[in-house]
Amino acid sequence: MKITVVGAGAVGATTADNIIRRELAEEVVLLDIKEGVAEGKSLDMYQTAALLGFNTRPIGSTNDYEKTKGSDVVVITSGLPRKPGMTREELIGINAGIVKSVTENILKYSPKAIILVVSNPMDTMTYLALRESGIPKKRIIGMGGALDSARFKTYLALEMNVSPNDIHGMVIGGHGDTTMIPLTRLATYNGIPVSRFIAADKLEKVAADTMVGGATLTKLIGTSAWYAPGAASAMIVESIVRNQRRIVPCSVMLNGEYGQKDICMGVPVVIGKGGWEKIINLRLSDAEKAAFAKSADAVRSMNAALDA
Ligand SMILES: NC(=O)c1ccc[n+]([C@@H]2O[C@H](COP(=O)([O-])OP(=O)(O)OC[C@H]3O[C@@H](n4cnc5c(N)ncnc54)[C@H](O)[C@@H]3O)[C@@H](O)[C@H]2O)c1
Ligand SMILES: O=C(O)C[C@H](O)C(=O)O
């Protein structure tokens, strides 16, 4: 098994680090355009092997795609992160060009790879990667809902003063400050609806905090987050390479599911060795359906900006 992570910045390096520590592949290639950075970070990571006991070999590359040849899974994190006060959508101009060229280069050397898109605005970048590559849709997955759901569970756990590991919940829709949909109605504390433990106004605040989870961190840090994004990306990679068939909300191409077509958006999917294997069709309430349709309108207008 060989995995490539494109972009050796905050998210790419953290993703690679999580993948390596979990020994998800024999080789992990980290590639960046900045001279020496991927090589340096890979060597730094490899020097933790003698301390942590893993056997995966990280390999750095300054824009040499030959080194990525034969990758089974590729994670694309290359691109600008937002600064405080910006939306993810404002990154489209520069990141679209980066994601397009990276996807082309990757597929030249790894035509069978499953691609996980992380760069923002993620739903549109996933759509772009799929449209430009023309590879089977099940091999292109956008990472957003896994992270948003982790934030949702964390805020629920903090509100309830319980372990996040006992909370189950999902965020679907677009990966945007106003487009994501935390499914409060379906969230549980080990199977018990969280509404039994949290008052309605508090639950609404948890949902609102989840939606601006990325913006909150960007304001605090000065750039966007990487620990949870890296862990979320590695979790999806693990479900692919170990064929765990976990249900994870991911941005995938919809063809009538959830009432939408020709759009990549976050819905629960089964993730296994073929990529996303099937979409789980949740029975949404009327309000949730309306929120999903509104979210789709926003994502669709962002996709239209690709051709503007
Ligand atoms: N989907 C999500 O949930 C999620 C979460 C966090 C961050 N992100 C996004 O991920 C992206 C990366 O964030 P970051 O914090 O790691 O940024 P960063 O600036 O730390 O790293 C980005 C890296 O990409 C590299 N890069 C730029 N163009 C490249 C190219 N053509 N080929 C190879 N490498 C190239 C840069 O040199 C840099 O090292 C941003 O777009 C950010 O918004 C998405
Ligand atoms: O918030 C961002 O811009 C980065 C990422 O999408 C996140 O949710 O952390």
Automatic annotation (TrEMBL):
UniProt GO MF annotations: L-lactate dehydrogenase (NAD+) activity; L-malate dehydrogenase (NAD+) activity
Residue intervals of the Lactate/malate dehydrogenase C-terminal domain: 147-299
Active site (UniProt): H175
Lactate/malate dehydrogenase N-terminal domain segment(s): 1-142
Catalyses which reaction(s): (S)-malate + NAD(+) = oxaloacetate + NADH + H(+)
Residues reported in the UniProt entry to bind NAD(+): G7, A8, G9, A10, V11, G12, D32, N95, V118, S119, N120
Position of the signal peptide: none
The EC number(s) this enzyme carries: 1.1.1.37
Keyword annotations from UniProtKB, A to Z: NAD, Oxidoreductase, Tricarboxylic acid cycle
Domain of life: Bacteria
Principal EC category: oxidoreductase
Short name of one Pfam family: Ldh_1_N
Any one of the GO BP annotations: tricarboxylic acid cycle
Binding site for substrate: R82, R88, N120, R151
Similarity annotation: Belongs to the LDH/MDH superfamily. MDH type 3 family.
Annotated function: Catalyzes the reversible oxidation of malate to oxaloacetate.
Protein name per UniProt: Malate dehydrogenase
Species whose genome carries this gene: Arundinibacter roseus
Highest classification ranks of the organism: Bacteria, Pseudomonadati, Bacteroidota, Cytophagia, Cytophagales
Gene: mdh
